[in-house]
Amino acid sequence: MMAPPIETSSKTPVSQPPAHPPLNERILSSMSRRSVAAHPWHDLEIGPGAPKIFNCVIEIGKGSKVDRVLYSSVVYPHNYGFIPRTLCEDNDPLDVLIIMQEPVLPGCFLRAKAIGLMPMIDQGEKDDKIIAVCADDPEYRHYNDIKELPPHRLAEIRRFFEDYKKNENKEVAVNDFLPASDAYNSVQQSMNLYADYIVESLRR
After folding, report:
1. pLDDT value for 146
2. Cβ burial 108-121 (10 Å sphere, 16+ → b, else e)
3. What's this model's pTM, rounded to 2 decimal places?
4. Is residue 71 annotated as a catalytic residue, yes or no?
5. Is the peptide bond before 22 cis (omega within 30 degrees of 0)?
6. Given 71, 76, 194, 197, which residue is catalytic?
7. If DSSP codes are grouped into helix, strand and coil, which group holds residue 134?
């Protein structure tokens, strides 16, 4: 039996409030797997000390090229990863470079303390990095601001990010390092964006 035709209304539709912009497909894909296994971006707590002290997930260990093939001879000078439950303008979590004594395996997480911000433009797009120290490393945990680091350490970090994509003919611009207060603001803004853009969108 055929279904009866659906009646249409001639009334003027009620205007709806503007919707959030569509979620990035990669974000949605990562969220769709949460029912199967915990996802480090969404399921790991950022920690009660944020935006100053926070959990982070290591993607690339110190001295390694793991996670991507670098076209130059450089290796990551420190452990590199991201801060969970943050979101940036490029639809990725906020990147963080963690200064500590030992390399850490990819997939591990640790507590980090923000000490500065490295503003960076990668191929025309904003791609800032939080500079942090491991909050539980006795050699580095006493650092509170990036100006306390030895100048050669800052030069090493800057040089790496200026050079690591040169052989791919990709342009990267690193601006002057900013103090810890700017890092706190950046972490807080990315936490707010995550809450607004992800959590509220899932509730709709």
Report:
1. 98
2. eebbbbbbbbbbbe
3. 0.81
4. no
5. no
6. 76
7. strand
